Write a sequence for this structure.
């Protein structure tokens, strides 16, 4: 197969990143509605959200193997379509059992797409021979902003959650269909053995721990920001959805500026300043306890953690003695476990000490990333 022009390939994988963020952000603002519909406590909601984590964790090893056997192009196509189809399933589930199953399917599809599209993005970046990974992650955030904004508007207009998600799934499917033909062909591995995860060297363990903390914070904010604004600060559902929209907007801005910041100040300084911004911004918002401050805090966290993962992934690809792809797979998998563990951890902690104090875990994680910024090297 003749590879598409690199500009078309970049547009195609950018579209997939955008759709991934769009789909997840279309679902997130409806988490409070699911909680109210089934009468969950914070702890019970956290346990139910663990179903999505379980689905992704079970899918991750298979995803890495399938990308190697079938190629990132094929797996990106399959996973993107599956994610769009899975989007409305949680809201269409009438029982708690079906809800858990739907979330597990959604998590498995998202985990598989995360591995596949990052591998595909690596091929496009290698063709450009310059750093462009942050731009892909920026488009993921823009997709999140768009999805959250449309969900907020739909809630304000009184559009039913199930109807909204069905329409968003159809729109996402159409976008994916236009992108798939332009993805970069990748060769499948024919040998029977394939090493997916790297041996955990000291450097790799450090990067994996920082990725775990960064994505734990991101996952927790994604699922609990709207619940905090609505249930603790007593805002309207539409205003609560604006918190995640602010988070996504700030993250998109930070990521789109990330390559230039790292080139000018060095990855170590950017990582340190980013972690500190997120930790201090959220801590101040939780201390103030007002709706406007809450939305601003969500924005500060989004801005602060925007470039943590792109910088950590970039450093993982340069770990001495470990192939770049193997090291990236190990750090990405560890980080993804943090993303999945964040929401249920906050839920369980909220039952014990209250949601505001539980969200202090997010602030602490960001502070630890700032303290460990030396792991990425540079200035």
């Amino acid at each position: 197969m003749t590879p598409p022009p690199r500009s078309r390939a970049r547009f195609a994988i950018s579209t997939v990143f955008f759709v991934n963020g769009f789909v997840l952000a279309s679902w997130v603002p409806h988490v409070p509605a699911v909680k109210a519909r089934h009468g969950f406590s914070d702890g019970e909601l956290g346990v139910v959200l663990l179903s999505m984590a379980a689905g992704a964790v079970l899918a991750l090893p298979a995803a890495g193997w399938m990308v190697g056997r079938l190629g990132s192009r094929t797996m990106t196509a399959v996973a993107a379509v599956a994610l769009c189809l899975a989007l409305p399933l949680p809201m269409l589930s009438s029982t708690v059992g079906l809800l858990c199953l739907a979330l597990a399917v959604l998590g498995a599809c998202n985990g598989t797409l995360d591995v596949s599209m990052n591998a595909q993005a690596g091929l496009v970046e290698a063709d450009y021979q310059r750093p462009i990974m942050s731009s892909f992650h920026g488009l993921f955030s823009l997709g999140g902003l768009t999805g959250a904004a449309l969900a907020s508007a739909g809630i304000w207009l009184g559009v039913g959650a199930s109807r909204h998600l069905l329409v968003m799934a159809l729109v996402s499917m159409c976008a994916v269909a236009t992108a798939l033909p332009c993805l970069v062909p990748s060769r499948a591995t024919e040998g029977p053995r394939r090493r997916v995860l790297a041996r955990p060297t000291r450097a790799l363990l450090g990067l994996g721990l920082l990725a775990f903390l960064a994505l734990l914070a991101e996952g927790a904010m994604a699922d609990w920001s709207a619940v905090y604004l609505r249930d603790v600060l007593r805002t309207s559902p539409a205003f609560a959805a604006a918190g995640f929209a602010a988070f996504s907007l700030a993250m998109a801005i930070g990521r789109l500026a990330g390559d230039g910041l790292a080139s000018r100040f060095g990855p170590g300084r950017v990582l340190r300043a980013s972690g500190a911004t997120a930790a201090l911004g959220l801590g101040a918002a939780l201390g103030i306890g007002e709706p406007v401050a809450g939305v601003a805090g969500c924005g500060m966290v989004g801005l602060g953690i925007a470039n943590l993962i792109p910088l950590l992934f970039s450093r993982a690809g340069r770990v001495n003695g470990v192939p770049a792809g193997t090291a990236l797979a190990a750090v990405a998998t560890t980080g993804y476990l943090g993303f999945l563990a964040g929401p249920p951890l906050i839920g369980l902690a909220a039952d014990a000490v209250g949601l505001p104090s539980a969200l202090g875990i997010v602030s602490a994680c960001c502070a630890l990333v700032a303290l460990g910024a030396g792991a990425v090297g540079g200035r």
Summary: The chain has a mean pLDDT of 85. The two ends are 43 Å apart (CA to CA).
